[in-house]
Amino acid sequence: MIKTDKSGKRLFILDTNVLMHDPTALFRFKEHDIYLPMIVLEEMDAGKKGVSEVARNVRQVSRFLDDLMRDAGFEDIEQGILLNNRGLVEGLESEEYGRLFFQTHSLNLALPEALPGSKPDNTILGTALALQNEHPDVTVTLVSKDINLRIKAAVLGIHAEDYFNDQVLEDVNLLYPGTSGLPVDFWQQHGDTLESWQKDGRNYYRVTGPLVQSWNANECVYLPEEQGFEALVRETDGKTALLETAIDYRGSRHTVWGISARNREQNFALNLLMDPDIDFVSLVGTAGTGKTLLALAAGLTQTLEENRYKEIIMTRVTVPVGEDIGFLPGTEEEKMTPWMGALMDNLEVLTRSDVGGDWGRAATNDLLSNRIKIRSMNFMRGRTFLNKYLILDEAQNLTPKQMKTLVTRAGPGTKVICLGNVAQIDTPYITETSSGLTYVVDRFKSWPHSGHIILTRGERSRLADYASDVL
Length: 471
What we know:
With 471 residues, the chain is an alpha/beta fold. It is built from 15 helices and 18 strands.
């Protein structure tokens, strides 16, 4: 029996898709109570088979419920099972715990005639209405990832909310940019305690001041004037920071596999990609900003010229933009080839040369085919990459759990590059604020061996730039 509570506690009815999306949702409502309709258990039972992530999540929910109910009798179930985490999920311990209620008796599902109760969503709506009528003093809220279900709930007068605990940020505009503009009077404000020296042709500055507190390791700072001061934050302790001037890859003096940076953000990206002390780099930007081209150019230089890495491994999420073309024949690499059009297009630019004629181009292509491998993301679990340059393309379509699985494949000497555009997400139930790319950028921003840049200026062509703005 659900008890009336005057302390502000609420009763949340969880839709099936919430548990399929995040099995730990059971423990994320702190002191509030959770209600699971019987139809939700039925839908989870139907979705537990298979090797998909959804099926794995359903089985994990079943294990959590089994642990919670292990020593509970019928009276305990009737009074609500205490949602004590008991170490089942790390980092979700709370001072107060709510209770988990199941549908233990039939409810008067008084739905309008336009909403018959045979459909699972309508059954959940009927359950919510019945609980509101039985417990008028309790705030009943339906939590669902299904927008249409939330719309129908609002029409019926049921308070409904999206599941927000999976969101890394409240707004994608709050995503860490990786760059920071300095005020025009920066040197006047920080000049009194400034220390500077030169080493290996680079200038170093140790600064103290109010701006230092907001900087992260490997953040790129610059003065606003064109071709002005550009540097990377190498160390920061909250009070002082060590700045190292960035290498200028815009001119012909410093090129990366024949590629020069065309704007400030691309220049910072090449500094991060070419730095052996940075193990993880994320590049976010719209189409045509040069993400794949810069990552490949830096990878070819460090693999073939500097021998820093043994080979380049490229993979991406196989989510089609339109209708799926079905199964593809051939080996793993042959199956992935249609998905790697971006790789082939950029390799054509990077290997374009008139030296040696057709024979020279054929020899170059043979060399690259031996050092660049295309791998499917479906077979990554359990693998370990040693001294590899790993490129994860279209990373915005990954969930946080999938992103963790892929990034943890990196062994000693491996560098991971994540490329993506959070405005082009093709995977259902993933949004800009819950994407694995947003998740990893936010979690890695303070790590001293990672770097991040948002590329803003398109450099593909004037047609592509105009189309990105007006279409």
